[in-house]
Write a structure and sequence with these properties.
Helices cover about 30% and strands about 20% of the residues. Strands 11, 12, 13, 14, 15, 16 and 17 form a 7-stranded mixed sheet that branches. The two termini are about 25 Å apart.
């Protein structure tokens, strides 16, 4: 599946730019609590009446809570997943990751690649009965670039999507009404681009591009997307149980969905369980149909026919705060830290879920070049600055201490309060302290949302974080490190790097696939030589999926799990 996705999305990869799936990783969720028993009875009855599904919800484990159900404000994979459960965009992903029509019944692309005209389905409706219109997209996209909204994913419209005037609006130089998107009529949406963007249609299934009904939004005031009552659906399911920071989320099949015949599940029931042992027990008790496992659990269940390992696309890494921490401004200290990390031990002895040790700034197995080769297949290309070498680490360490005039250093590393990050952080601490004399690493665990906020505000020293690809191109990672990008947690700046990224986006080589690919390698080398991040591993999810469940679609890009075609027998 992954290889098919790569060949489809990247065969013509030309003009691309930054993007990223929120420092978090990849999962997304939704809203308030309403009588779930009554809702479930209704869902079961509907399923039995139509002969679809089994009258039983799919029970899914989430390892982190939903952060936001506002499509223009959400930044994490969990939130994206849940939003996509009940909202369609202009396009969807098929099972192979290819962009296919969703709310758009058809699309016309101008010969010069600068104008896209989307024709919206006449049978696409919101759950309040109102039709989905082109104006819903105009309103949502203008929100996304409005500096007063300050969407962290506004760059999807400017740097990545290259929509006319997006950057000037984000910078406060033009009004949001000047965005290059127009409702020609109720069912026709016209989009103008600055330059051809070969992957533009694949962006249309990313939640930041989803529509919002303006009248409904304004009627909710500040409560939009915080409860079922303040959320509208136009997708496969309807949200009927959710509240912020909820540990349970419920969705029921949308019988008025234009593609309802495809949806076999009567509903989805999410449970947020951050302790892996508790999650495994819930699965074994029959309360969950699917759950993640890691560490010693993998040894227990690897022979179970329900066990599978699925590439998730996320790169886990440590980000050093190079702006405010003088010790981390020293290159030798940073090189010592990355050289002291035994990534193989982390993946083999701690995670045991198929995750792969990673020594590059772009992870493996998601981005293929013009010749079809994996951008990061060669994991030794930066071994002079990123490998496990205790002796070399000590050499760098001593040089750094001498330059700083210090004999010891204490650093604090923040990390998520989820099971896997806790285990990884503990091993990282042990490895660093054991290898580097005079180093003390103090750990601080916290909810993911708090950790992300602290990293964005530079209120940290070391941060254990991850990034998931929003589209299948190296730029989804490399774009993070340009000056002032909101996801550039290390606050690194390099003029040569910025120029290469600009040239690959809208410059002379943007439309030359081979030259662009080579330039992206050059940019990655600059970042790796400067130890901008300490890559750890590319995540693989070890999961138990009940043998009576089929049809869940897994993707390494944008939306990790899609349930529209899932079946529970």
């Amino acid at each position: 599946m992954k290889k098919t996705l790569l060949s489809i999305v990247l065969a013509s990869a030309m003009t691309l730019s930054l993007v990223a799936c929120g420092s978090s990783a990849v999962s997304g969720v939704s809203q308030d609590q309403q009588g779930s028993d009554a809702q479930q009875t209704t869902a079961d009855t509907a399923a039995e009446t139509t002969g679809e599904g089994s009258g039983s919800d799919l029970n899914v484990m989430l390892e982190t809570p939903v952060e936001s159900l506002d499509p223009q404000q959400a930044t994490d994979g969990t939130s994206f997943e849940v939003i996509a459960d009940y909202t369609d965009g202009l396009m969807q992903m098929d099972a192979d990751g290819q962009a296919v029509n969703a709310l758009a019944e058809s699309v016309d692309v101008a010969d010069d690649g600068l104008t896209y005209t989307f024709h919206i389905r006449k049978d696409a409706n919101w759950s309040n009965g109102e039709p989905v219109t082109a104006a819903d997209f105009v309103f949502a996209w203008q929100r996304a670039v409005d500096p007063e909204v300050a969407s962290e994913y506004s760059f999807m419209f400017s740097d990545i999507g290259q929509i006319v005037n997006a950057q000037d609006i984000i910078d406060g130089k033009k009004d949001k009404a000047d965005l290059g998107v127009t409702a020609v009529d109720d069912k026709t949406l016209e989009v103008k681009l600055n330059c051809p963007v070969s992957y533009f249609l694949s962006l249309m299934y990313f939640p930041t591009f989803y529509p919002v009904n303006q009248a409904f939004f304004e009627g909710c005031a500040d409560t939009f997307a915080t409860s079922p009552e303040t959320t509208l659906s136009n997708g496969a399911f309807v949200l009927d149980e959710y509240q912020p920071a909820a540990t349970t989320i419920h969705l029921t099949k949308n019988e008025n969905y234009y593609d309802a015949a495809t949806v076999k599940l009567p509903g989805l029931s999410y449970q947020v369980i951050q302790d892996s042992q508790q999650a495994l027990m819930s699965y074994q008790n029959g309360d969950l149909d699917t759950t993640l496992v890691n560490g010693e659990q993998v040894d227990q269940v690897k022979d179970d026919p329900a066990f599978t390992a699925i590439g998730a696309g996320y790169l886990w890494y440590i980000s050093p705060n190079m702006r405010d921490v003088k010790e981390l401004q020293n290159l030798n200290i940073r090189l010592a830290l990355t050289m002291a990390l035994n990534r193989e031990a982390i993946t083999t002895d701690v995670l045991k879920d198929g995750s792969a040790p990673t020594y590059t700034g772009v992870p493996m197995d998601f981005a293929a070049g013009p010749d079809g080769s994996d951008f990061s297949a060669d994991q030794k290309k930066f071994e002079d600055v990123c490998r496990y070498d205790a002796d070399k680490a000590v050499e760098y360490w001593n040089k750094g201490l001498e330059e700083l005039g210090a004999t010891s250093i204490t650093l604090t590393m923040i990390h998520d309060a989820d099971d896997a990050p806790i285990k990884v952080a503990q091993v990282v601490k042990e490895q660093l302290e054991t290898t580097l004399p005079g180093l003390t690493v103090e750990l601080q665990q916290m909810p993911k949302k708090e950790r992300v906020e602290r990293m964005q505000e530079a209120d940290f020293e070391l941060g254990l974080t991850r990034w998931g690809p929003d589209y299948a191109d190296p730029m989804t990672y490399l774009g993070m490190w340009i000056t002032n990008n909101p996801n550039n947690y290390g606050f690194w700046s390099n003029a040569e790097y910025d120029k290469i990224i600009s040239d690959c986006t809208t410059g002379e080589i943007a439309m030359d696939p081979e030259a662009r690919w080579a330039a992206l390698y050059d940019a990655e080398k600059i970042a790796m030589d400067d130890a901008v991040i300490f890559p750890l591993y590319t995540q693989c999810n070890a999961e138990l999926i009940s043998t009576n469940v089929s049809g869940i679609e897994f993707h390494p890009v944008a939306l990790n799990r899609v349930y529209k075609r899932a079946v529970k027998n």
